[in-house]
Design goal:
Oligomer: heterodimer
Number of strands of chain A: 11
Shape of chain B: globular
Order of helices and strands of chain B: EEEEEEEEEEE
Number of helices of chain A: 0
Distance between the termini of chain B: 32 Å
Largest sheet of chain B: 7 strands, mixed
Number of strands of chain B: 11
Radius of gyration of chain B: 13 Å
Helix content of chain B: under 10%
Strand content of chain A: over 45%
Largest sheet of chain A: 6 strands, mixed
Number of helices of chain B: 0
Largest interface: A-B, 26 and 26 residues
Distance between the termini of chain A: 37 Å
Order of helices and strands of chain A: EEEEEEEEEEE
Chain lengths: 110, 113
């Protein structure tokens, strides 16, 4: 099993739709998790942190399910500007090593 | 803008050559990590530097080496370049070891011919 697994997509959704991505991880000792957003040919930027059961920031909600070892990202009322690749990130061994998933590509369609 | 700067932004090398990539971390950040991102893949952890010492390493061969300087800037050196080394090389800085929030530079895009 890969350390961090994501569905690469693409997810093509209409404006205003709600979309959810999942990310599974293998290291049960991981305590914190992150979602990063990466626009085409740009650097990743932190979107949300998840330290306990979940986190909400406007239209974005991240949830953690420790028993099943996955985190999810929910985007409500999708905007064209949400089109990007969403990377799931799991630190391991403290923060000496950080593992990124392959990323899930989202395309919001007018 | 994150305040992390990388140079050069683009470069082309041939197989067998050596390359040095540079990174200036954000002010106040003492930890720098390097990542390799191949097309269509997520960033892969190369190594991390903390207070001028290597503090963790991913699954990369010894021809990938690095340095961190007293001002916390860093270099990534790759010897004996191979075609598969073509990728975006990302530098990220963090405030300390106890945070997973990474601040990335815009990357150096390396093409090996």
């Amino acid at each position: 099993r890969k350390e961090v697994e994501q569905d690469p997509g693409p997810f093509n959704v209409p404006e205003g739709a709600t979309v959810a991505f999942n990310c599974t991880y293998s290291n049960s000792a991981s305590q914190s998790f992150f979602w990063y957003r990466q626009d085409c040919r740009k650097e990743p930027k932190l979107l949300m942190s998840v330290y306990s059961s979940g986190n909400e920031d406007g239209r974005f909600t991240a949830q953690l399910n420790r028993a099943s070892q996955y985190i999810s990202l929910l985007i409500r009322d999708s905007k064209l500007s949400d089109s990007a690749t969403y990377l799931c990130v799991v630190p391991s061994g403290g923060y000496q090593k950080v593992t990124f998933g392959i990323g899930t590509k989202l395309q919001v369609i007018p | 803008e994150t305040g992390v700067t990388q140079s050069p932004t683009h470069l082309i090398k041939t197989r067998g050559q050596q390359v040095t990539l540079r990174c200036s971390s954000q002010s106040g950040h003492n930890t720098v990590s390097w990542y390799q991102q191949a097309l269509g893949q997520g960033p892969q952890f190369i190594f991390q530097y903390y207070r001028e010492e290597e503090n963790g390493r991913g699954n990369f061969p010894p021809r990938f080496s690095g340095l961190q300087f007293p001002n916390y800037s860093s270099e990534l050196n790759v010897n004996a370049l191979e075609l598969d080394d073509s990728a975006l090389y990302l530098c990220a800085s963090t405030k300390a070891l106890d945070t997973g929030e990474l601040f990335f530079g815009e990357g150096s895009r390396l093409t090996v011919l």
